[in-house]
Amino acid sequence: MAEPRWLDDREFRAWLGYRRMRLLLDAQIARDMQRDSGLSDADYDVLSALSSRESRRWRLQELADRMTWSKSRLSRHIGRMEERGLVTREGCDTDARGSVIVLSEGGWRAIQEAAPLHVASVRTHLIDLLTPEQIESLGDIAETVLGRLSASRD
């Protein structure tokens, strides 16, 4: 077995800082969203995905893939969102076992109300703290890492 390539002090600082930042930032933005709109992160992800399409609909499996969730996990979450009137579920014309998730009028209102508050939270806790150069670097870093992770999923 090859000797591990341990992180040096600079790399270790970056790695631990990223991990702690991610945990605290995600938690703060989730708290803000819950307080401001009553939506969870997952609710917001579903609603924003649905609202990003002109048809306001996604096949359940495609939405699960986008969210990197299992189909069954997403299906259970969608059931809870249906009970709250945020989405509806329809049969799929091309797959008798599939379903299509549709953004309801209540869900459309919820995402329209939540989005400006969510963006304000993201700005307060991340974007407005960074210089334009740091934002550019963060975008570059994200694209590099996501490119590798996307390639490894194929």
What does this structure look like?
This is DNA-binding MarR family transcriptional regulator. The protein is mainly alpha-helical and 154 residues long. Helices cover 68% and strands 8% of the residues. The protein has helices at residues 9-37, 41-51, 60-67, 71-83, 105-125, 132-153, and strands at 57-59, 87-91, 99-103. β2 (87-91) and β3 (99-103) form a beta hairpin. The longest helix has 29 residues, at 9-37. The two termini are 27 Å apart.
Concise account of the structure shown:
With 154 residues, the chain is mainly α. The protein is 68% helix and 8% strand. A hairpin with a 7-residue loop joins strand 2 (87-91) and strand 3 (99-103).
Write the layout of secondary structure elements.
Layout lengths: L8 H29 L3 H11 L5 E3 H8 L3 H13 L3 E5 L7 E5 L1 H21 L6 H22 L1
Antiparallel strand pairs: 1-3, 2-3
Helix pairs in contact: 1-5, 2-5, 3-4
Distance between the termini: 27 Å
Mean pLDDT: 94
- The CATH superfamily of the domain at 43-122 bears the name Winged helix-like DNA-binding domain superfamily/Winged helix DNA-binding domain
Low-confidence stretches: none
| Radius of gyration (Å) | 19 Å
The number of helical runs is 6
Proportion in helices:
55-70%
Give me the secondary-structure category: mainly alpha
CATH topology annotation of the domain at 43-122: Arc Repressor Mutant, subunit A
Which architecture of the domain at 43-122 does the CATH hierarchy give at level 2?
Orthogonal Bundle
Strand ordering within the main sheet: 1-3-2
Oligomer: single chain
Q: What is the element string, with H for helices and E for strands?
A: HHEHHEEHH
- Fraction of residues in β-strands: 5-15%
CATH class term of the domain at 43-122: Mainly Alpha
Estimate the global geometry from the Cα principal axes.
globular
Give the tally of β-strands. 3
